TrEMBL record:
Residues 50-61 have a biased composition (Polar residues). Residues 157-358 form the DUF6268 domain. Keywords: Signal. Residues 38-62 are annotated as: Disordered. The keyword Nuclease does not apply. It comes from Hymenobacter fastidiosus. It comes from the Bacteria. This is DUF6268 domain-containing protein.
């Protein structure tokens, strides 16, 4: 989709969180298409409305009637209130630590640019900047891990390339690859080799009707902690003019309620996985082994959430979200060996959270063309 306008200015809190400059990381990914399954298994999709296009041939896509508008530019801020934290040293020479986090905030900015936007092929470039901040009750904490992530913050700067390729009026596939620089780096010490993290996705699907599309595939990334592949099931379905489901199982499942074309409600869960590289200012010394100058921090959480999206103006929407965060892991690993031995086992107490979002969508007059 096209982005009609961009914000000319950001609020002061957002400006303070941005780095001095944002670089773009361009990556590419190729995959071999799988053989098309026997189409007689599924009934042909219902005929789509061709009044808005001069192309008599219809092409299948994973989206269905009733889904919210495509997002072109997104500004998102999320906050978790005070909660307890505890860390247990997993090797000899590392001590345990208990404290309280007085702040855990996240800001992310995402943008999507359509490089090719044809009915039979869509190529989309995405860029993102994210920053996660922690503040602890006792400062400095005297604990190497917490002192490092509090003073620098955890940043992610990335780019992705997505290919949406309709095969015919029933079948489609998606290929996506993403590269991110994730860690506690600053602009003066950024090293692509140290901080680069890659992920990829392939889905092949069937469009059974304008209200039902599903697909199977594989995702490769850090959603569940360590870098690993896992199966993915896409299921988008609209049951009637009010209710629908949007899912990419097991990463997220969401029920949708269309209150009106300009107001949508969601409820469900999502699994978020982050992987950061932490450069320690003071080497971490453990008994009978080499000192560590860096750690790999794996953060995994499950969010049970409700969300409201509402149109403000033709191209401008906002989103409000609230829910409960279940922390599955916040662990530090030794990067000096292939086995990635766990050094620190941490637990962030479960807590409620809230977020606010502002995003730009294509104007309706553009969609009606």
């Amino acid at each position: 989709m096209l982005i009609s306008r961009l914000f000319r200015s950001l609020s002061r809190p957002v400006q303070r969180l941005l780095p001095p400059g944002l670089g773009l990381l361009a990556l590419s990914f190729t995959a071999t298409a799988q053989e098309t399954p026997n189409r007689s298994i599924f009934p042909a999709p219902a005929p789509a409305d061709t009044s808005a296009t001069n192309d008599p041939q219809q092409f299948a896509t994973p989206s269905v009637v009733g889904m919210g508008p495509s997002k072109g530019l997104i500004f998102h801020y999320e906050r978790v209130p005070r909660f307890n934290v505890s860390s247990n040293g997993q090797v000899v020479g590392l001590r345990d630590y208990n404290s309280q986090a007085t702040k855990n905030a996240r800001l992310f900015i995402k943008g999507y640019i359509p490089m090719i936007n044809h009915p039979h092929l869509k190529l989309i470039l995405g860029i993102n900047y994210e920053r996660e901040e922690f503040k602890f009750r006792d400062r400095p904490t005297g604990y190497e891990l917490y002192d490092n992530i509090e003073n620098k913050g955890l940043k992610t700067l990335g780019a992705q390339l997505a290919v949406i390729r309709p095969v015919n009026d029933v079948n489609w596939y998606i290929i996506r690859t993403k590269g991110e620089l994730s860690g506690d780096y600053t602009s003066s010490e950024l090293s692509v080799r140290d901080y680069l993290r890659m992920s990829a996705e392939f889905l092949y699907g069937w469009k059974r009707s304008p209200t039902f599309s599903w697909g199977l595939g594989v995702q490769l990334g850090y959603t569940f902690g360590r870098f690993s592949p896992y199966p993915a099931l896409l299921y988008n379905r609209t049951f009637n003019k009010r209710w629908g489901v949007e899912a990419l199982f097991p990463a997220r499942v969401t029920a949708r309620y269309n209150a009106s074309p300009r107001s949508l409600f969601y409820a469900g869960y999502s699994v978020d996985g982050l992987n950061y590289i932490i450069n320690l200012r003071q080497p971490l010394r453990r008994e009978g082994s080499i000192s560590l100058n860096s750690l790999e921090l794996r953060e995994t959480e499950v969010k049970f959430r409700t969300r409201w999206e509402r149109e403000i103006y033709d191209f401008l929407w906002f989103g409000l979200e609230a829910g409960y965060r279940y922390n599955y892991a916040f662990d530090a690993f030794d990067r000096t060996n292939n086995n990635r031995i766990k050094i620190i086992d941490s637990k962030l107490a479960n807590a409620p959270y809230a977020s606010v979002e502002l995003f730009i969508v294509p104007p309706r007059r553009m969609l009606r063309r």
